[in-house]
Amino acid sequence: MEKILVLNSIEDNLHYAIIENNKLVELFSDEEKKLTGNIYLGRVEKVVNALDAIFVNIGEKKNGFLRIKDIPEKYYDYFSVKEIKEGSKILIQVKKIQQAQRGLN
To answer: Is pTM beyond 0.70 here?
Structure first.
């Protein structure tokens, strides 16, 4: 029985395949998961009144940014929430991911 392990590493992502007798038996990839569209129960880390926004910890490397005006009024009613404050839990959906710019030229 012939077993082949194929490894491929691109940047920080590892991919591998195990082939036995010319048949693929296992395939693995640790690519970063896509966050867009996912729904999370997050925790409010910081309320920034000057920005009229909050930063929400969704368990990923960076906190999410949410404008308070993007929270519908019915959200407050449905979950019996009077105000959003630090430490509050909030149900959110990721709409887009913005990459931080490094260095200014």
So the answer is: no
